[in-house]
Write a structure and sequence with these properties.
heterodimer, A: about 375 residues, 17 strands, B: about 150 residues, mainly beta, Lipocalin, eight-stranded antiparallel barrel
Chain lengths: ~375, ~150
């Protein structure tokens, strides 16, 4: 009987106490050298390169941010025909812009995420509202200030990203986005014929866990108007793992300072722009008016973990106006390519002074 | 034999049965496995009724900056930052759910000090699909692990 009871307690204790786990195992009990020559039982595992390198700022699944520009001056030309490089002789409208800003929502959800293929679908909603002081100029429907002060500027977009590792070192990266940008109200969006499409394709190498580079071509609206430009990706982390770069030239370039795995600082610039169809404005031709907003933002951004996979970011810097010009486009929504060599005239040449800005956000980050 | 003795004998037999036969199917997970990156080897073992995996080999065992054995320096718990990675239990608390699936566990990534929910699916006896995720399985990433065999020379 005693033996049975003893057996009972031995078995019970084996089951119960074995549940108590410690992350640290007793290394002295195990000879790790026996694993050095362990080889695959059934064919070698194929190694594919990872889309990330060490210590990059974390990719974001969901992001909610507030973007705000401090006061600046706005000078707008009248509608007409302006050659490239022309400047405003006498503004048709002027104003002090008290503030420019709004919410920026982004989501990127992986549809397929494995070591050999990554496909993400995403959406974004950006709102930019303006408040003006000391407006001088017409107050009729031909006024751009009147038109953008009603509903501000809105962008609603969808995007898709594919990362395909070709082997342990090489990869392909493709991105596609469709954005509906304009001064429309949310309850009365503009037609889908005004969608603007962007796309990029890159081929690159990831020689080690601290370096990744790629070259490619992009169709972009980051300067406000349609352009096709070569792109260079260069992400690098120093051997000390305290410093690095995050570059997708010409869209953005940052130097990174990693304080630890949970906080970092970025310093650099980003090109930020869209092409907005200005609905309801009275045009001098029987055409649409499209505002080509392109901003060059020099900035510092501090990111840190708040809790678990929730991170926060605060960004501050100087916004230089790259373009606030406008073009006449067709009623059917089609756009045209001017690029660096095109000679097409602008419908408006507008000037904004520079402004300080900040952006504060909270993000659900990816593994 | 008294009734109590019979009951204890029966109980002991039931315990022995469960101790040695339960979750046998789940024990197919036990072994040494390698993630697709090839940077580590992980030994999965059973402790009690659950499955755990510890790092037993690192392709780069030393920290390039200190030239000492790698430690868990990114762990959010400061008291763990000097713990060696070799021997570190990175897979924890997996329970066999049937149909070649183990769940309810977590996976730890020493590269960033994050712990993710995790599900393991055995595609064949030598291949695992390990999915780490945040909250819902859609927000995650799957890696393929291959079984290793130990050379006995």
């Amino acid at each position: 009987m005693k033996n049975i009871i003893l057996l009972f307690f031995i078995l019970s204790s084996t089951q119960l106490f074995a549940q108590t786990d410690s992350t640290i195992t007793n290394q002295e009990e195990e000879d790790f050298s026996i694993y050095e020559n362990a080889t695959p039982t059934d064919g070698k595992n194929i190694t594919f390169c990872n889309p990330k390198i060490f210590d990059l700022s974390p990719a974001r699944f969901v992001s909610i941010a507030w973007d705000h520009q401090l006061p600046y001056e706005m000078n707008l030309s009248s509608q007409g025909n302006y050659a490239k490089g022309a400047t405003i002789e006498k503004p048709n409208e002027t104003a002090n812009v008290n503030s420019t800003g709004g919410v920026r929502l982004n989501a990127n959800i992986p549809v397929i995420s494995s070591n050999k293929f990554l496909w993400q679908l995403g959406g974004n909603f950006w709102k930019t509202n303006y408040t003006f002081d000391d407006v001088i100029g017409p107050t009729n429907d031909a006024s751009l200030i009147q038109n953008i002060s009603k509903n501000g500027l809105t962008t609603f977009g969808l995007n898709s990203t594919v990362f395909k590792p070709l082997n342990e070192k090489q990869f392909l990266l493709a991105q596609f986005a469709a954005d509906l940008s304009g001064n429309y109200a949310l309850d009365n969006p503009q037609g889908l014929r005004f969608l603007r499409y962007s796309a990029s394709i890159l081929w690159g190498k990831r020689p080690n866990d601290r370096k990744q580079w790629a070259v490619g071509l992009t169709r972009t609206y980051r300067t406000g108007e349609l352009n096709y430009v070569p792109i260079l990706l260069f992400n690098w982390t120093a051997p000390s793992r305290k410093w690095g770069t995050e570059i997708l030239f010409p869209a953005r370039a940052h130097v990174r300072k990693n304080f630890n795995a949970r906080s970092l600082l970025l310093g650099g610039y980003e090109l930020d722009g869209q092409s907005y169809r200005i609905g309801g404005i009275l045009t001098t031709s029987n055409k649409e008016l499209e505002l080509r907003r392109g901003e060059l933002r020099f900035r510092m951004e501090y990111q840190r973990q708040i809790s678990g996979f929730i991170w926060g970011s605060i960004q501050a810097g100087y916004r230089y106006n790259f373009s606030y010009r406008a073009d006449n486009t067709e009623k059917d929504g089609s756009d045209f390519f001017r690029g660096f060599v095109g000679k097409q005239n602008y419908a408006m040449i507008n000037e904004l002074s520079g402004a300080l800005y900040f952006n504060i956000g909270i993000h659900l980050v990816s593994p | 034999m008294k009734l109590t003795t019979k009951l204890f004998s029966l109980l002991a037999l039931v315990m022995i049965f469960f101790a040695f036969t339960s979750n046998d199917e789940g024990d197919r997970l036990i072994g040494v496995w390698q993630p697709s990156s090839g940077k580590a080897k992980v030994k999965i073992e059973k402790i009690g009724t659950k499955y755990y995996g510890k790092i037993v080999w690192l392709k780069e065992p030393n920290d390039p900056t200190t030239q000492k054995s790698k430690v868990d320096k990114n762990n959010p718990d400061e008291s763990m930052r000097n713990v060696p990675l070799k021997g570190y239990r990175m897979l924890k608390d997996f329970v066999y759910a049937g149909k070649e699936q183990w769940n309810e566990g977590t996976i730890y990534d020493p590269e960033n000090g994050s712990t993710y929910s995790c599900e393991i699916n055995m595609k064949d006896k030598n291949t695992l699909e390990i999915r780490g995720y945040i909250g819902v399985k859609a927000l995650g990433r799957t890696d393929v692990w291959k079984r290793l065999e130990l050379k006995t020379n």
